[in-house]
Structure formats: structure tokens, C-alpha cells
Amino acid sequence: MPANVLTQLPSTPGGHTTTVSVQVTDDEQMSIPVHVLRGERPGPVLLVVAGEHGAEVNGIAVIDRLLQETSPAALAGTVLAVPTINPENVTARTYCREPGTGPALDFAWNTYVKWPGDPQGDPAERITAALTDAVVDAADVVVNFHAWSWYCASAVFASATIPRAAELAINFGIPFVSLSFTGIYGGRSVDEPLDPRHNALTHYAIAQGKPAMLVELRTQNWIYPESVQRGLQGIRNVMITLDMLDGAITIPPVQYEFCDEQIVYAPHEGLYIPLVDVEECVEAGGLLGYLLNIHTGERREVYAPCAGAVWFNSRVGEHSDRVFNNTHAYADPGDMLALIKQINPIRG
Question: Which of 38, 202, 295, 299 lies 20 to 30 A from 64 at CA?
Fold first, then answer.
């Protein structure tokens, strides 16, 4: 298995680049770029990763900007960066290299739920096994960038059971925060035993006692400057909190921890026209938008079932993160139109 990259590269301050080679199938080898930025002062090892799913590209841009704009002279500690965990998914321009609509564990190239992996397993398990040895186990703190579609709010997921994890997640500076991460798509609570092979990276890191967070940025498939800037400021905030960088954190005036949720479904077909943007707060009974009958011009209003913050407000079909047509605004009866998160203020 690949050795810890920190032991293979120069210990002098500055930027260093290597690759982790993985025999993903009997006939194919993959090279995954890994960047190491060593500061001039001692400090923690921060691992930042992105690019597990090929449609989720904003985190790749965040890490590239971070590497460009961080001076070793200003840095205490080490940044370990894997901008693209699964390059094949990105170059295939799809969620996973072999697309499908079944359970995530059935995707041979979906690394998300396959940490710490298996060097003899499917391609995703081989990738995660190699990266676990090369970078994950060397880190003190882990940040994993993902992305949701443009109609969804950005959010940070962490576990308050780990020392400093809540502080880091809140200081990341995104309005929506969850401090009870439960291994999304993995289906397990952080209190349950770790699966030998199949966990989200964040869940695996938490089980090792490390502060770890999953960051979901808004927008898939294209680079959205607002999300890139939000992610870049967030990782800088984390580094300031860890005393890796000097300066003051920049955070929004209002932040919420979200809890229960209610989904609004389309009662009939029509073009859904939202009137409230994501991350806005609504009262119970507040107007969210309306369904337009494109044949008759009839409009039927859609209202919030509870008070809370708008998580998404756009027609969403099944497997919309993998099937682009399912983000089209024309709704069929039973399609999801909006999701309202009930919230507890953290600040503001």
C-alpha cells in the first residue's frame, strides 16, 4: 500500500507535489495528484479533499485557489490537498464513471461510501484504501468538499462529539450547520460501530477521533464563483481557528443549526415558479411559489408547511444529482418542490 506521503516528500517549507498510484482494475492504473504545502512554523496537518463525484467541481477550484494563495511564510503546519479524489469521474463529466440510479454502494466508482476501502475490492474501494494510507491517517483535521445542485443551500456537516469539531464547523462560516453528522448515504449514526470498508470519509475520520466536516457547496457541473469564494473563505476560517494562519475569521451575521424537515410535493403537474430563494427564512403558511398550467394559464400557489429556512425551492425529480433532466422546472404530481428545514439559531 502507498506510504504516508508526508514521509516521502521534503520536510522543508514550501509546496511539493506527488501522486498516489492505484491499480483500480486488473488492467488499469490511476494516478491521483496529492499536494503538500508545508509552513515555516510547526502546526497541525489539515487534509482538504474534493472531486469524489464528477459533477461536484467547485471544491476542486477551492483547493486550487487555496494552494495558489497560501504562502508558506504565513503558514503554521501543513496542508495536505487532494483536489480530485477520483479523476475518472470528473473526466467522464458525470456523477460516477459508470452511471446508474441504484444504491450508492452498487456504484463501482463511487468512493463516497467506501472508506477506508479494500486494496482488493472494487475500483472505489482500492482508491479509498490507497488514500487512507497515503493522506487520511496522516491528518489531524479533515475537510471533504462536495456539492449539491444550484437549487440547494450550502451546508456544513460535523459531529459535536469530537473536540473542536463544532467550533470549526461553525467558524467555517456557512449559514446552515449540522452538528450531528450521521454518515449521509452510509445510513449509520456516529455512535454505531465503523463498517470495515463502507463509510463516508467524514464518518471514518470521526471514528478515529478527528475533527472532520463534510462541506456541501451550492451548484454542480459548473464553477459557481460565489460557492468557490464561500468555500475558500471557509477553509481559511478553519485555518485561522487552528492557528495555522493569522487574521480574523469572516462569518455571516446569522447561522442556524438545522434539525427536522418537511417536504412540499406537487399536487398536480405544472411549471413550478419559486418566489423565495434558498437560505431565506419563511413563516408557516408563507408563500413559496406557484405551479403554472402552461395550457390554461391557471396558477396554484404553494405554501410553506412550517416555519424554517428554505433548503431547496425548485422542482426535483428522482436521482436529480445524477439525471440532469430531473432538475427541470416542469413538475409531475408527487415531485418534490421544496424542503423546509426547522432551525435553531447559532448566532444572529
Answer: 202
- What gap in Å lies between CA 110 and CA 42, rounded to an integer? 35
0.70 surpassed by pTM:
yes
For residue 252, is the peptide bond before it cis, meaning its omega torsion is within 30 degrees of 0?
Answer: no
Euclidean distance between CA atoms 253 and 134, whole angstroms: 39
Q: Residue 81, CB half-sphere, CA atoms under 13 Å: how many?
A: 22
| Those residues with Cβ within 8 angstroms of residue 263's Cβ, 6 or more apart along the chain or in another chain | 336, 338, 339, 340
Higher confidence at residue 344 or residue 259?
344
What is the model's pLDDT at position 101? Answer: 57
Residues of the chain with CATH 2.40.50.100: 258-347
In this prediction, residue 181 carries a pLDDT of: 76
Distances (CA, A) of 189 to 105, 182, 184, 185, 201: 17, 4, 9, 11, 14
Which residues does residue 156 pair with via DSSP β-bridges, in sequence order? 177, 215
Vertex 19: Cα angle to 132 and 240 (nearest 5): 65
| Owner of C-alpha cell 493569522 | 246
Contact 308, 342 (CB under 8 A): yes
315-336 pLDDT, tens digit each: 877 655 555 556 789 999 999 9
Which residues pair with residue 257 across a beta bridge? 177, 344
Instruction: Write down the CATH superfamily of domain 5-241.
Output: Zn peptidases (3.40.630.10)
Domain 258-347: top CATH class: mainly beta
- What is the predicted pLDDT for the residue at 191? 53
Residues 6+ apart with CB under 8 A from 103: none
From CA 142, how far away is CA 168, in angstroms rounded?
11
Q: How far apart are CA 19 and CA 156, in angstroms?
A: 28
Secondary structure of residue 348 in the 3-state scheme? coil
The confidence score (pLDDT) of residue 186 equals 44
For residue 193, give the DSSP letter.
Answer: P
| Three cell numbers written together for 169 | 464547523
Residues of the chain with CATH 3.40.630.10: 5-241
